[in-house]
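Comment thread on ticket #2218

A.B. wrote:
> Attaching the input chain for the structure job we discussed in standup.
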Amino acid sequence: MIGFPGTSPAPQPWLRRRDAPLYAANGIVAAAHPMTASSGLAVLQRGGNAVDAAIAAALTAAVVMPEMCGLGGDIFAIVHKPAKNGNAGRTVSFLGSGISPRATTIEQMRANGTDGGTKMQHQGPLSIGVPGMVDGYFTMLREFGSRSFAELAEQAIGHAERGFPLTKDGALSIRLSAPMLAKYPSSAAVFLANGADPGEGTLLRQPDLARTLQRIAADGPDVFYRGEIATRIAKGVQEVGGALSVDDLAGHCTTVTPPIQTNYRGNTVYQTGIPSQGMILLEALNIVEALGELPADVPGIHRLVEAKKLAYADRLGYAVDPAFGDARHNTLLSPDWAAKRAAEINPKKAMDNVVAAEMQDGDTTYLCVVDRDGMMVSLIQSVSSAFGSGIVAGATGVVMNNRVGRGFSLIDGHPNIYAPGKKTMHTLNCFMVADEQGRMVLTGGTPGGDGQPQWNLQMLTGMIDYGWDVQATIDAPRWTSWPGTDPISLPNPYELRVESRLGEADLAVLRALGHRVVMQDSWDGGGAAQLIARDPETGILAGGSDPRVEGQAAGF
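C.D. wrote:
> Ran it. Output below, let me know if you need it in another format.
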């Protein structure tokens, strides 16, 4: 059973912080902040379903994790509603990212860019795109919810209005971002009111954000995209030199579509599609399966790292906003393509130079919820970098994203080159897994920019190939092959960043294979993974939460 302790799992010699999954029968919420998990659990306990709980949890995260997510960010999600009482089941993905401002030009972006105009302004006023989060919440509720937005926003509004005590990570994020936040009076007024170095337990109040949430709860998403709040957001951004307009906001809508998928070892793995980079995970899984059984220990790590390099190169070579080109993901996810790419992997030598194969014509937070009926939600939301653009839009309390600045390229011929009104490719993605009988048995994901697909790859192979439970999988020593797809990190030679718990003997073998190994502290590999597995026979749930952050899995 995927994600549950097996009878003969592969060895787990590493140090663990959490000895076992959380088990529950009525519902689990797994999230990266305790208040986020608590908000979702309270909704489940009051009879709300998994979507209701996920939206309540996500709204709380948008208040208590402003460095990671917020109303000015984007959202991607997969929802599975099982068949019940003669009604067919549904599995749907929600793609909630927005366009770049229509009034800008690539010449303007190059003039305000870095590295001689070859890279975008990473943060600041021209890095902002249309936020998709608010419309994403309402779209999910219309499709699957059973509670009102106003009810689900109650705890988030309370945390914003009355304040909440900063955790260790929350206080650290303000300290690290204080120089950027200080550039913008509206941002400094919110996050530096207690100084540039607030201590743990300091109360952070966001009354403007509370009022914005109250208006949305009363008037719906139109007030955010076409009404008074939209006007105030656009004005606040333009006053500091941005280009986002009311017309840009007014044209936004969430894309609702079937998730993309592939088959791995007989299981169906679902992912969010373009403009998310969920395709990377599916292509990497296909390459790994094309190579046969996944060996344990270092040979397995080497194979996964090399598959990651190939899949990331193909994302850079082909992925594009469908309105501006063909991402060719049907070809990229085909068995023939996987076999072609798998043949390039040398089991005894790491690749240094990986490019997209020729094709013939023709900071973020993640949470998941499962309820007693087996409805599952996999949800990821983000303002991109820490505190996004660094700009709070006037007196709205809304932290604006920097997805435009982080995602686009300024290099001629690149499929993801900047254009006005275009959606950039996203690092955000999340997954679900159905077993060989088609029963949905697992939901999961992690934040972490370009780390996401490769950490998800490690978790899925850990559970499916090695038989580890959800918590053991999360606790396993994590590696990151860097760089990924972020334009700001390219070009650079590959590094393999590995948590030190892997052991010196294994690290030596990786170096001998040609990997440039960079040591990280034992629990500093990045990410904030959350997983929930469901036994389809009994309905029992097993939840895991990443000990690298302050979150938890909470159930009843």
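A.B. wrote:
> Thanks. Noting for the ticket: The first strand starts at residue 22 and ends at 24.
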